[in-house]
């Protein structure tokens, strides 16, 4: 037995909080570690003790093994839980924890070593007779060899970082022209994210489902699986929606995939929680993808359908206890669906968004679970992953869980920065998803080449928002008035009270005129329509109202500049006063090339005086663990370069100017 009474969580955000909650329930003392950027983060406030470990970049804090070990010694921690990401699949970290006389809540060093490397793990799985995707996982890492192997395999192919996951260091390639650039980007991203530039090549399985099996093993030789999760809805090879069970799963297929996952774990003498990921095609064939030697982001859906606390199981196994449950005792009850709330802009290729959270209003509803790493007043940093919360719904049936999750998401709001809230609601509402037909090609299939674009706000929604703005301004004036008779609300001796507000809808400015008809009744003129709005009630950040007889709930937050954030139904929007918030929009065809987000400028790919064409790579920016190419929108000549590679760049900061091509 390796009993322990204190636990250091070598992570941050929602997973650190989630682990600490269970640890505290078990009576353990919890210790948080934090960087400069996380000094006031929720996980730091929640812990019993906290230790500062360095600067904001992960290379100065969360990825520095020595600092984590020192923090454990200083705080008197007896065990370390790595969470997911960061050092969770680093065998050197596991070894260092054990050598320091501490308990590592995770698998043995050997299992991490083998399964944490896509090349080695694939070779091991082939030896263990686990079905694998055809590919190349050899030691020769020259560009020439990778290109030759890709040509032999046949396009499309996947270029993947051997040492990592989560979509980083991964590129889908359809032809030989794009292959050299994909290899270069994948190498660079893999080196920065995982400290290894080793790559593997795999045949791209077209439109499969991404189905993974949760396994658990103890030190007594017991290895079981806890059913599957379907994680097919992804962007940039990173999961967005996960569910359990898989919509097309059968008992026979679950038994085969479960056995393969258990065999994979036994092949590396696995201990603890792990996930074996497969690609499942339409014929029921499945292929080993990778094994994550840690707790998964999406573990809550398994917890909700099995009734098991996976962190409790992890801590028990780490303490040397048996699993206490057999394969026959594992039952799956109902259905659970999880969505990941990201600070990103779905309408701009899901680019990360950073900045302060001016309001975080958690989703509400029956059988809803929220694992969040933010609160109102938090700051979403460019140094870490953009996922800020997970929202999970459980129901007796898949459709019940789906509808509950949609309703919960509609009750939520994240203001102050861009998020994928509206996109998640739209995704859950798509008929293809409702029918359980989503594959890894879901986003391309549903949203097409142009990607997701928010639906144009209905006139009724704009009218509702205009009335909410009117109500807030009236209430503010009322608060400054002494002894006003309530019967005189919205009444003026000069006639009916009216206010004019403007919205931006795409590139179009929409003007609305709100006329008060009574204390809670209004008429809104907008786009040549007259819309009745009544029964308006505002209570803090929550509001209810009727528009043309239909009831709406809304979450609202007014900024200090008077702009109004509103989340109503499946729409999040910002109401601005055009006269106070006008500015020149240089547009996409401007010669001014600005950074689309805060990040590290890795490369300036052009020189002053160089001719460029639309579509040429100008620079490479790293933000939230991903590398993003900045592309020229116009033809021209690089006139001036303002930024320096290697520096941190703010959002909207000028990188370079493209001037016109000189006439001969």
TrEMBL record:
Species of provenance: Sneathiella marina
Xref: Gene3D superfamilies: 2.40.50.100, ATP-grasp fold, B domain (3.30.470.20)
Protein name: Acetyl-CoA carboxylase biotin carboxylase subunit
EC code: 6.4.1.2
Superkingdom, natural source: Bacteria
Domain Lipoyl-binding: 583-659
Cofactor(s) recorded in Swiss-Prot or TrEMBL: biotin
InterPro entries: ATP-grasp, BC-like_N, Biotin_BS, Biotin_carboxylase_complex, Biotin_carboxylation_dom, Biotin_COase_C, Biotin_lipoyl, CPAse_ATP-bd
A Pfam family it matches: Biotin_carb_N
Keywords, ordered alphabetically: ATP-binding, Biotin, Ligase, Nucleotide-binding
Residue span(s) of domain Biotin carboxylation: 3-448
Domain ATP-grasp as annotated: residue spans: 122-319
PANTHER family for this protein: CARBOXYLASE:PYRUVATE/ACETYL-COA/PROPIONYL-COA CARBOXYLASE (PTHR18866), METHYLCROTONOYL-COA CARBOXYLASE SUBUNIT ALPHA, MITOCHONDRIAL-RELATED (PTHR18866:SF33)
Molecular-function annotations in GO: acetyl-CoA carboxylase activity
């Amino acid at each position: 037995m390796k009993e322990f009474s204190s636990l250091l969580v070598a992570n941050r955000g929602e997973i650190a909080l989630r682990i600490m909650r269970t640890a505290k329930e078990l009576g353990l003392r919890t210790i948080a570690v934090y960087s400069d950027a996380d000094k006031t983060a929720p996980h730091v406030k929640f812990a019993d003790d906290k230790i500062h470990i360095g600067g904001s970049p992960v290379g100065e804090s969360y990825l520095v093994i020595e600092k984590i070990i020192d923090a454990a010694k200083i705080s008197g921690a007896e065990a370390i839980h790595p969470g997911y990401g960061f050092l969770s699949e680093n065998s050197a970290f596991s070894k260092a924890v054990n050598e320091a006389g501490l308990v590592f809540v995770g698998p043995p060093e050997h299992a991490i070593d083998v399964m944490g490397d896509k090349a080695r793990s694939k070779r091991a799985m082939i030896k263990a007779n686990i079905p694998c995707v055809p590919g190349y996982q050899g030691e020769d890492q020259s560009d020439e060899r990778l290109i030759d192997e890709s040509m032999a395999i046949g396009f499309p192919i996947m270029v993947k970082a051997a040492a990592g996951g989560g979509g980083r260091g991964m590129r889908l390639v359809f032809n030989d022209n794009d292959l050299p650039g994909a290899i270069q980007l994948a190498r660079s991203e893999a080196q920065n994210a995982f400290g290894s530039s080793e790559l593997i090549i795999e045949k791209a399985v077209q439109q499969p489902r991404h189905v993974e099996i949760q396994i658990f093993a103890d030190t007594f030789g017991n290895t079981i699986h806890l059913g599957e999760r379907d994680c097919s809805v992804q962007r940039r090879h990173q999961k967005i929606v996960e569910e359990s069970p898989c919509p097309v799963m059968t008992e026979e297929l679950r038994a085969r995939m479960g056995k393969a996952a258990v065999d994979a774990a036994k092949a590396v003498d696995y201990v603890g929680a792990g996930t074996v990921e497969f690609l499942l095609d339409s014929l029921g064939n499945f292929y080993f993808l990778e094994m994550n030697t840690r707790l998964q982001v999406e573990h809550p859906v398994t917890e909700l359908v099995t009734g098991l606390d996976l962190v409790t199981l992890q801590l028990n196994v780490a303490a040397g206890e048996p699993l206490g449950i057999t394969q026959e005792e594992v039952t799956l009850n109902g259905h659970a669906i999880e969505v990941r709330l990201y600070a990103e802009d779905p309408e701009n290729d899901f680019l990360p968004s950073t900045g302060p959270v001016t309001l975080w209003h958690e989703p509400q509803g029956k059988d809803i679970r929220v694992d969040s790493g933010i609160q109102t007043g938090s700051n979403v940093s460019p140094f870490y992953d953009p996922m800020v919360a997970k929202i999970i719904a459980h129901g007796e049936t898949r459709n019940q869980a789906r509808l509950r999750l949609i309703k919960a998401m509609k009750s939520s709001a994240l203001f102050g920065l861009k998020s994928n809230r509206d996109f998640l609601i739209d995704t859950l509402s798509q008929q293809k998803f409702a029918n359980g037909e989503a594959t890894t090609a879901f986003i391309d299939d549903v949203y097409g080449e142009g990607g997701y674009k928010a639906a144009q706000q209905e006139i009724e929604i704009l009218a509702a928002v205009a009335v909410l703005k009117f109500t807030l301004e009236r209430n503010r004036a009322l608060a400054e008035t002494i002894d006003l008779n309530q019967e005189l609300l919205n009444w003026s001796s000069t006639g009916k009270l009216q206010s004019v507000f403007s919205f931006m809808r795409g590139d179009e400015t929409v003007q609305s005129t709100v006329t008060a008809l009574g204390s809670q009744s209004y008429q809104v003129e907008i786009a040549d329509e007259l819309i009745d709005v009544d029964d308006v009630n505002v209570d803090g950040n929550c509001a209810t109202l009727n528009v043309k007889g239909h009831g709406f709930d809304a979450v609202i937050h007014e900024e200090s500049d008077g702009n109004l954030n509103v989340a109503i139904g499946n729409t999040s929007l910002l109401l601005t006063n055009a006269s106070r918030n006008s500015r020149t929009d240089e547009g996409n065809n401007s010669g001014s090339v600005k950074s689309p987000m805060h990040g590290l400028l890795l490369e300036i790919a052009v020189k002053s005086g160089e001719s460029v064409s639309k579509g040429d790579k100008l620079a490479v920016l790293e933000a939230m663990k991903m590398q993003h190419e900045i592309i020229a929108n116009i033809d021209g000549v690089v006139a001036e370069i303002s930024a320096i590679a290697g520096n941190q760049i703010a959002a909207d900061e000028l990188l370079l100017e493209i001037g016109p091509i000189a006439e001969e």
